[in-house]
Structure formats: structure tokens, C-alpha cells
Please model this.
Amino acid sequence: MEQIGLYLGCNIPLKAPDIEQSFRKIFPPLGVQPVDLEGAGCCPAWGTAPSFDLNTWCAISSRNITIAEDKNLDIMTGCNSCFGVLSEAKHFMGNAATRKVVNGSLAKINREFKGTSDIYHVAHVLHKKIGVAKIKENLKFSLAGLKIAVQTGCHTLWPSDVYKVKEENSYYPTILKDLCEVTGATVPHYSRLEGCCGMGGMRSTDAEKSLKLFKEKLLSIKEETDADMIVTTCSSCFLQFDMSQPILKERGEIDFEPIPTFYYTQLLALAMGFEPQQVASISQIDRRPIIAEIQSEKRRIKEGM
Amino acid sequence: MIIDQKKIDEAIEIIKGHGGHGIQKCVQCGACSAVCPGVKAGFPLLCRALIRELLNGHLEENIENSSSWGCQACNRCTEVCPQGVRPQEVVFAFRRYQALELAFSTSSVTSQMNLYETGHAVFSDPKEARRKVGLPEETPTSAFNEEAQKEIRTLMDNSPMGELGLF
Ligand code: SF4
Ligand code: SF4
Model:
């Protein structure tokens, strides 16, 4: 079975371990074995070393990357920010002068960045390495008739020149759409598809500005798609959708019920028949009704069909 | 307006030194600002407007401005810039200038301390949540790995961050 280094980051293993568990459940049946990168830490997050010093950013990212290099493995991460931070650091390490200075720092901890490991997002591994046909073979429940609004998130899209896997048009991304459609669900377009959800530095700097941007996106989703759920491949977008819809509702700024939100592999794990308690149990918005619908008997795919 | 060339040269040198290498290629077309979610949300000093200020030598004058901290590092600007400026790199270079002068909100100090202590910028005890979803209580990450934490501390101690007294 193909192996790949599973880089966890911070939010997923510490705050959303049900997302981590969904990775661990879905990949082996699809033919990819995630391998732990022991001792990997923060990517480092945009608000830390990248905001202070470029070489320190590169050093901390490179340390993480060398853990995979030592195992001769590529890296897969489910966090968009980690994906962006690690990919950009690897891009900077392509510069000989930067690499020399940073490898000088890494020598103090007996490490050396070689550049032999590629960096993939979970969505890339599913779409490009595994492929939708293989995913389809492993489904236990069909999502036919359900409507999904997708949210790709910024850091797998731009700047496209630093990423190993690129969308054909980063302002009209289709990878997540394909991954959702294979479950049988419909994925309608909405005008703010590529819009930013407002999480990240913006939210910690000014929550009200962040919410304003978020609301615009949310209303576009609600009014143009009336989706049953929102599905994202960014763990930060997930937190924003799950945490901020109830806030807007409580303030009376939206007049509809918060739309249940899933990280993509949670949805896939449910469609593959895994236990909701293990793969999709941590959220502010009550997801139990939609989970019961997804795993209802009438949706079970009969063998041999 | 009096143009102080020395001040302008200094500002450009500082921004380039912090990674904003493309700043002088900017032609002020505004394509970056048009796609920037930060500008849209109401952080005026990003993209074209910030670059203009910096190219006029106004570094110190804007040191307390919080716009750069509202940048999402999304790089929509980098993608559309016809000149190859990579505006996000300029924004972050300015942010680094601010950060090394300690011009940032105190709330961000916690992340630096968490990173230094646990190797994770975001840290909370995950044991119960992990047990409930059927995972080992301890993550395979630096959070429960002293050797890893030591490595990360060494990298931070030996960086310009180490001199700021944040951790
Ligand atoms: S898009 Fe490029 S050239 Fe145009 S204003 Fe922005 S940075 Fe300058
Ligand atoms: S990276 Fe920052 S400056 Fe560039 S478009 Fe995104 S939010 Fe705006």
C-alpha cells in the first residue's frame, strides 16, 4: 500500500480530533496508508514566526518537512494554513542563499533540509492519487438528492506557483466539487464561491470585520443554493462556519437555522459507513439530524449495484 | 510634498530585507486591492495603498496601523499582480518590521508562548476529546514529545524572535 506522511498541525489533532480520526479511517480502504510524523509541531502558523522573521519561518517549517524526508515519504496535511505555510517555505528554500542560512540553523538540531518530500493537501491525495472512481467503489451510502455548498479555502489556491497540485482555474476551483459530487450529492454554484470566510488573522485582529465578510459569503450560499450542508477542505473555514453561524443567528442577523458544516473527509467517512461518534462528533451546530439522514437505511447502496 | 530620498531608500531596504523583494516593481494599478479580502473587510492599508505609503518612505508613520495584521496571507494579490510584486510578501515584510518593533496586539503573545512551550501555536489539552473519538489520548506531535519541543525552542532562541522577550 502506498504510504504518505500525515502532518497534523495544531487545530486538527488538538481541537478537532474527529477530523483526524476521519483521515485515519478513510485512507487505508482507499489504498493509502497515513504514517505518523513523530514530533512534528506547528507549521508555524501565519501569526507566529512568519510574522516575525522569514528565515525562522523556513527553519521551523523545514524541521517538520525533514521528519518526512527522513522516512522517505511525501507529506499530506488536512489543514489549509499548514499546506500554504509548508508549501511556501519549501518554495523559499529553493533559493540557495536562504537554504544555506536555514540549514545552518537546522544544523544546531542535527537536521538538514534536502527538498525530497512533496507537500500535498488531503484533497489532492483523494482527487489526484486515489481518484473519484476508487472513492465511489467504497461508498456505503448515497447522498443523492442532498445539496452541498463547497468552500475550498484560500491556501490551496493561491499563490498557485508554489503548489504541487493546482486547480485549472484557482478562481473557479473544482477539486472539492468533484469530490462531493461522487457521493451522489449535487453541488450548485454560488457567486461567492472563491470568497474568503474571514477566519485567520482577520478574525483575531477584528472579529466584527471578519463576521461582516463571513456573512456576505453565508448569505450568498443560503440565497443562491439553499444547501443542506456546507463542506470544506479547510479546517479553519470549518471552524468559522461552525462557530460564527450561531453567533449571527443569536444576534438576529440571519433568519435561517445555521447550516451544518463538515470537513470533507468527515462527510466521506460517514458515506463510507464509519461511526459518527468517531468521525463527526465535535461541532457547535447540531449535525445529528443530517448525519442520521446521510446514514439512513433508504440511502444504503446495495452490493453489486 | 517634500521628497526625502534617504528616507525612501531606507524604507525600501527594510522591506526588502524582510522579504518584500518585489516592492519596486509596483505600478500602482490596484489589481491586488480589487481582489483583497482584507481591503474588502475594511483594512485599508494593504496591497496598493500600503505599497504606496512604503514607496513614499512612510514606515514609522504607519507602525501602529493594524491593517497588516488583518491580512489573510491568501495571496489572491500575488496571483493577479501583473508585475510580479507578490504584494503579500510586502505586507508580511511590513508586518515583520512592526513585529520586531513590538507593534502588535498583546493577544498574539500567547501564540508565541504556546509555540515555544509545546511546539503548537494553538494548544489545549486534547486528551478527553481524543479518547471520545477513539484516538490515543496523546498526539504523535511535539505536544507530548520533549525532544521535539527542545528542537523548536533552539530554533526560536537562535532567531530574531528570541531577542524580543516574548517567551
Ligand atoms: S497588482 Fe501589483 S502592480 Fe498593481 S498595485 Fe498591486 S502590487 Fe502594484
Ligand atoms: S494576501 Fe493579504 S494583502 Fe494579499 S489579497 Fe490576501 S488579504 Fe489581501
Chain B touches chain A through 66 residues (CB under 8 Å). The CA atoms of residues 67 and 135 of chain B lie 40 Å apart. Chain B has nine helices and no strands. The pocket of iron/sulfur cluster (ligand 2) is lined by residues B 35-38, 46-47, 71-77, 87-88, 91 (CB under 6 Å).
